[in-house]
Design goal:
heterodimer, A: six-stranded mixed β-sheet, four-stranded antiparallel β-sheet, B: mainly beta, seven-stranded mixed β-sheet, 11 strands
Chain lengths: 113, 111
């Protein structure tokens, strides 16, 4: 069974700074997908970024980028030039084949004005 | 674009009552999920359905039943609600690459 671990329950950073959220996972599979989801206080789940394991290039979406280390089974999210609207819970998730989508326990990120 | 529609948004039940949470998606996805979210626990999978006609248990299935009525709909039933089932419930569906789309959530309180 796949597991996803987020070891940072809470983080805070000053506005405009850069912050990195950590995620590790455990799997014996080779081709899979990794995700970061954002959940603001509205409770809406929003996809931030997706990484396909067969791609060596790290995914980027505007201010959001990942550091995907397949051998180390590590998948961190970097948020550059952080904004107040980035305050949210962030969940790392793993998906393989046609099976279940597994989430980590989340990191609560607070951007300080 | 409707995406994933989940009802109701709020519900209060008395211990022992039953209810069904409804979920429908209009994206022709094969996979659908029910999660519960408790403070500090992240999203825990209750049940999922990889395709129409199939369902599988997640990590916290006890006290719940599901039904994949057709490709669009995936319902979650609480037969005899307990206070431990007080939570926020999310329905989701995903495409072949695992990209998930979520409903708005149901805040359920069992008293």
């Amino acid at each position: 069974a796949q597991t996803v671990t987020q070891s940072q329950p809470e983080m805070s950073v000053q506005e405009a700074e850069t912050v990195t959220l950590s995620c590790t996972y455990d799997t014996s599979e080779n081709n899979y997908y990794l995700f970061w989801y954002k959940q603001p206080p509205s409770r809406q789940m929003i996809l931030v970024i997706r990484q396909e394991a067969y791609k060596q290039q790290n995914a980027t979406e505007n201010r959001f980028s990942v550091n995907f280390q397949k051998a180390a089974k590590s998948f961190s999210l970097k948020i550059s030039d952080s904004q107040l609207g980035d305050t949210a819970m962030y969940f790392c998730a793993f998906y393989f084949g046609n099976e279940k989508l597994t989430f980590g326990t989340g990191t609560r990120l607070t951007i300080i004005p | 674009n409707a995406g994933v529609t989940q009802t109701p948004k709020f519900q209060v039940l008395k211990t022992g009552q039953s209810m069904t949470l409804q979920c429908a998606q209009d994206m022709n996805h094969n996979s659908m999920y029910w999660y519960r979210q408790d403070p500090g626990m992240g999203l825990r999978l209750i049940y999922y359905s990889a395709s129409e006609g199939t369902t599988d248990k997640g990590e916290v299935p006890n006290g719940y039943n599901v039904s994949r009525l057709n490709k669009r709909e995936f319902s979650l039933r609480l037969e005899s609600a307990a206070p431990s089932q007080t939570s926020v419930y999310f329905c989701a569906s995903s495409d072949r690459g695992g990209k998930a789309f979520f409903g708005q959530g149901t805040r359920l309180t069992v008293v």
